[in-house]
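Researcher: Structure for this, please.
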Amino acid sequence: MTNETTIRRATMADASSLAAISLEVWLHTYIREGVNAFFADYALEQFTTARFEEILRDGNETVWVSQNAVGIDGFLHMSANSQAPVGIASDLEITTLYVQPRHHGRGLGKALLKTGLQFCRDTDQPSTWLAVNAENEKATAFYLANGFERAGETHFIIGDQAYPNHVLQFRLNR
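Model: Predicted structure, token format:
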């Protein structure tokens, strides 16, 4: 991570940037063979300024952004009171960790993750968990290399479609 980048809590003024990054990263990661209406409708419904404003107003949601000299290039979103789909002692979920693809390899994801894990420690959580698409080998490898372990499997549901996800956890009291 360069000296130009800082990690800070997101503000309402960041909502549109969070929506744009979400669209960019989600489409880049999961839509590889052309965009159809099924996925376009999902992405355009989920990744909106209004949705992020809602998240930022919710006391159970915490968002940090990676801010460079020009703007936001990544973010970490954590949700409290989010029950894991498998037996995990924590209800603190890493909902989203997105970094713009052109900024991969600069340590932004690791810096955001470190901030989130410190938040877990500061709030006395025994662990945190996340779900990652089973086909996203790069993301799975990133989390495993940063101390997460496999805890089970679940599915991500879009409409009537189900996509296998790994459930990973990071134990803070090791």
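Researcher: Any notable elements?
Model: The chain has a mean pLDDT of 92. Strands lie at 6-9, 61-67, 72-79, 93-99, 127-133, 149-158, 161-171.
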